């Protein structure tokens, strides 16, 4: 029997690329996002792989439980959970609508945490295959410093990194892999959705297939944290030594 990978945010960008990579590696897929038509199109592209489409808005409180129940009702088990769905919002904190920022926290933090909790028992109980079982969480290089004009987004990604690194330690020796992928700017719909197309970051993007491949390979090798690209790795390394007040200023400058 083949293991199953559940990928959130599979309808585009990095999640779309993950879907191709995990399918190629021999996983069955459960693909999740709001855009059912895009998911169905991806399902057609992945002919030869068993792909289950589950449209779900993860910004709705309780969505993780609803999604988990849908998977159970289909009698499916999940061996790999890829918490990729997420979005950012650019603007002065007090001027961005609170409801939109709450939705961002719901997707980037709550749904990710709840899905990890809900599927962990299944992942633990799953047999060991040649390819690992576990959780691949998508943070960002935003996790390494404060991000003026995207304060909530940067903070949400710091949560994802801290949360996942803690689980690496808690579950050491259990056969479950926890990996955090920290992409830098990537050429997807992210900047449009975030209203951040004016920022300097858009000139430094990596291709989403390269980013997803780095995450996939890092997960397969059981890496704790994966930062794709030499420039992003340098930034992540430098953030260990630069005072946070300075890195906040730099992030603010880059935003303009
Ligand atoms: N692009 C970058 O520069 C960058 C850098 C660092 C980290 N990241 C992270 O990488 C991950 C993937 O983003 P991306 O760059 O691939 O952006 P993207 O192209 O905008 O893709 C985002 C995905 O998340 C899904 N999504 C958004 N809101 C959702 C919701 N409420 N419920 C369910 N699914 C939802 C979208 O699907 P639907 O719209 O169909 O729901 C889409 O499939 C995110 O966690 C992002 O924070 C991106």
TrEMBL record:
UniProt name for this protein: SDR family oxidoreductase
Signal peptide: none
Sorted UniProt keywords: Oxidoreductase
Family: Belongs to the short-chain dehydrogenases/reductases (SDR) family.
Source organism per UniProt: Halobacillus salinus
GO molecular function: oxidoreductase activity
Pfam families recorded: adh_short
Keyword Glycosyltransferase applies: no
């Amino acid at each position: 029997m083949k293991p199953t990978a559940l990928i959130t945010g599979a309808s585009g960008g990095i999640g779309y690329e993950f879907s191709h990579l995990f399918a190629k590696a021999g996983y069955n897929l459960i693909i999740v996002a709001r855009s059912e038509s895009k998911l169905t199109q991806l399902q057609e592209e992945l002919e030869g792989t068993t792909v289950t489409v589950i449209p779900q808005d993860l910004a709705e409180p309780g969505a993780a439980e609803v999604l988990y129940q849908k998977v159970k009702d289909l009698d499916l088990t999940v061996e790999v959970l890829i918490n990729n769905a997420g979005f950012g919002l650019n603007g002065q904190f007090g001027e961005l609508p609170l409801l939109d920022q709450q939705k961002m926290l719901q997707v980037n933090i709550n749904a990710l945490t709840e899905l990890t909790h809900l599927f962990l028992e299944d992942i633990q109980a799953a047999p060991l295959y040649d390819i690992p079982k576990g959780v691949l969480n998508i943070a960002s290089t935003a996790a390494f410093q404060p991000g003026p004009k995207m304060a909530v987004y940067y903070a949400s990604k710091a949560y994802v990194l801290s949360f996942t690194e803690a689980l690496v330690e808690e579950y050491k020796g259990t056969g479950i892999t926890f990996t955090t992928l920290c992409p830098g700017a990537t050429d997807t719909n992210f900047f449009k959705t975030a209203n951040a197309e004016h920022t300097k970051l858009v000139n430094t993007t990596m291709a989403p297939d390269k980013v997803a491949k780095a995450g996939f390979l890092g997960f397969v090798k059981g890496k704790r944290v994966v930062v794709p690209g030499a420039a992003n790795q340098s930034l992540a390394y430098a953030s260990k030594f630069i005072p946070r007040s300075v890195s906040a200023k730099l992030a603010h400058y880059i935003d303009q």
